[in-house]
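Continuing the batch. This is chain 6 of the set; chains 1 through 5 are on the previous pages. Same settings as before, nothing changed between runs. Recording input and output for traceability.
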Amino acid sequence: MCSIAGIVYEDGSQEAAMAAVRRMIALQRHRGPDGVGFYDTVGASLGHCRLAIIDLSDAGHQPMADLEGRYWITFNGEIYNHRELRHDLKVRGHVFKGHSDTEVLPHLYEEEGPEFVSKLRGMFALAIYDARTRTLLLARDRFGIKPLFYAPGKDRLSFASEIRPLLELPGIDTRPDKQAIYDFAALFYVPAPETFYVGIRALQPGELLEAQLNRDGVSWKTRTYYLWSITPDPTLTLDQATERANEFLTTAVQRQLESEVPLGSLLSGGIDSSLVSVAAQTALDGELRTFNVRFPEKEYDETWAATAVAEHIGSRHETLDMNGVGGTWEHVTSLLSHAGQPFADTSLFAVNAVCRLMRRHVTVALSGDGGDEGFAGYDSYWRIARIAKLQRLAPPIWRTGAVGLAPLGRLGIVPDSLPQRIRDLAGADNTAIIQALLCWVREEEHKSLCRIAD
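Output for chain 6:
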């Protein structure tokens, strides 16, 4: 994990921009302990703090430019197909100083322009500044794994990996965003491109921002470079689908194992982390280090499952004890401040505690996060399938069912919220059903909660 920050500006002093970028990087130094770097010119200032994983030499230092010094990049992430891209660029005559994945990017941008992002396989948030045309490109990976926020204005555009550094800049509109408040009240998170603040936006997954410095100030626009589509293949058998999924998973894990620092895998014993660890163990010829965390509360401890999987795959396993890793008020508020806006996912604290323990042993860690989203592991996905079958029933039947379930709800035989849920879904279309399942409050409650006086 690295962090990036920068400002492009038409009106203002270079010294002020340089100082602001250095302040933004200082506020994000926890993301990159291995070094900081800056690029400054009239109209632009870029910053970077680094967590070194590939090419630990000075050749991996950022911000980085092509050999002519025209295209400057500050980059957070990892490009898994950088070796193939490098080979193609060498064939075209490009010369490289080191072997980091970052160094490929300004050269690829020179060849392809903004469309170069379509060739990247990886997780990333990046900024490229063209010193000749005075243009800035921001880009975020297709899944939005790496964060990137920006604050546009008439005479400048600023960006950073976190919201908090942007709040330190003068002239930022920090009024609460009304739509963001509405969304957070229902979803418990703020979806991009909104943030909690009117003057700060989040670059969306699969999105580009192009900014141009000119005599009238800074003009900018965003556009989508990648849209996901769901295209099921009904001709596949279950066995064929399983084999395809195994091939994709194995390839994805293998691509993510390149590292010049210690690497391990978080192994909880569940399906997702176990599959990832198996693929990594195979690719590393039996040299994988796996870790699980032992909780003092027995109902949360899955050490038995993790050790069973580790023994089965033959990994070098270690159990880390959570005892003594308490959450002080200062620690909790510090984590929330990094989010920069309201954040309601309490798994943040457990994940952070696990990562702090693993960081004593490895720098890079694989995990099974994302498996439930990719393979419909959450209960809500199964509820959607059941409700879809019941949509054929007439609304009166739904309402009658709700009346019949009400006494069972009062007795605790079924959840007391179930009858009302069924009433809400009577005659609902697909959008309303998804909304009812994924929102934490009902529509009437949401309207009441978010009532704002004119």
